[in-house]
Design goal:
Radius of gyration: 19 Å
Pfam families: DUF6230 (PF19741)
Number of strands: 13
InterPro entries: DUF6230 (IPR046198)
Largest sheet: 13 strands, antiparallel
Distance between the termini: 33 Å
Protein name: DUF6230 family protein
Structural class: mainly beta
Length: 204
């Protein structure tokens, strides 16, 4: 602990130390946001070694397409995921949280949006998740369609001969998922709030 941190009055924040912990996460999110807005992120980027939580009170979409693939982290380790392509998504009360190890301990990086500020919207949303929980309604569902022939969400197709599924209008209430990556063309995050806290609360 530095001399300036040691002399802080009780209840005061060590801003220099907090900024040191928070800066990498903030810069990473800023770069990710720019990449998403420009449609520059591909689903094939190397993922981190830690999955993260995604939650939303309600998700609606014009369509959904899904198939199984493998994400890989920089150490070469594979992570089986269900790729979920969601066309023109609208979400309420969203939350994303990841636990990051730092020299100071476990830090929870948490992003929330929506709520009273209004719905969050995303085009060309792709989530690589290892699970998904919620109460769902699907329109015109097709289960077992060849992954290479999926057409419910433009650009979301898998390898020929692989299992796939798709549906038309989709509504999912009480969304909870553990994901390895999320990309999108354009995000509008109303009421955005970002928090970095030692031993902080996650989404669920």
């Amino acid at each position: 602990m530095s001399g300036s941190d040691r002399n802080l009055p009780e209840g005061r924040t060590a801003w220099r130390r907090t900024a040191l912990v928070a800066l990498p996460a903030v810069l990473a999110v800023g770069a990710m946001g720019v990449g998403m807005a420009q449609g520059a992120l591909a689903a094939s980027f190397a993922v981190s070694g830690t999955h993260f939580q995604v939650a939303s009170k309600r998700l609606t979409s014009d369509g959904l397409a899904s198939f199984v693939q493998t994400d890989r982290s920089v150490d070469g380790k594979g992570h089986p995921v269900a790729l979920l392509g969601i066309g023109n998504a609208r979400l309420s009360d969203i939350c994303q949280a990841a636990v990051v190890s730092t020299p100071l301990g476990k830090v929870v990086f948490k992003l929330t949006a929506g709520g009273d500020a209004g719905e969050v919207t995303a085009s060309d949303l792709v989530i690589d998740g290892e699970d998904l929980v919620g109460d769902a309604e699907f329109g015109t569902a097709q289960i077992g369609r060849d992954a290479s022939a999926l057409d419910a969400v433009p650009g979301v197709r898998g390898e020929a001969g692989k299992f796939g599924l798709q549906a038309g209008k989709v509504t999912v209430a009480g969304v909870r998922s553990h994901a390895w990556s999320a990309t999108g063309g354009n995000f509008r995050l109303k009421g955005l709030k970002l928090q970095v806290a030692l031993e902080g609360d996650q989404c669920f």
